[in-house]
Amino acid sequence: MTVMTVPERPTAVLTATTTWADYPRVWKQLLGEVQAGVEWPAGGRQGRIVMLYLDDWPSVEVGVELDRPAKVGEGIVRSVLPAGRVAVTVHRGPYEKLGETYEILLCWCAEQGLKVTRTRWEVYGHWHEDPAQLETELYWLLAE
Length: 144
Prior knowledge:
Layout: E1 2-6, E2 9-17, H1 23-37, E3 38-39, E4 49-53, E5 59-65, E6 71-72, E7 77-81, E8 84-92, H2 98-111, E9 116-124, E10 135-142
Antiparallel strand pairs: 1-8, 2-5, 2-7, 3-6, 4-5, 4-9, 8-10, 9-10
């Protein structure tokens, strides 16, 4: 875990305000639409998956990083991951355990005297069949 300052990172997303109970269904639908609506250069890989949580409802942006030029289809929103000072860590392992890593990150922030905002995001590494090889970057925007 560390604190760093990050620049804005461009994304292509769809937005929603949902409930935590409905979120597992909602994110899959949104992500599928974004992945179908972004056209990458021939032979190139897609940008990494991103999920930006703007508050605790959650109001979310689900999509992909635009780390290189891509054509964004109708209805897909060009957005950014926020710039600013963040607490960051990398979760290694199955996605079902992300909540545990978030709890550890929040405890670490409290121990360091860092105040978090409600804005946080995940950047998913490229898919691996072996869950132990999965990596997800967790960012929590800090209060100034």
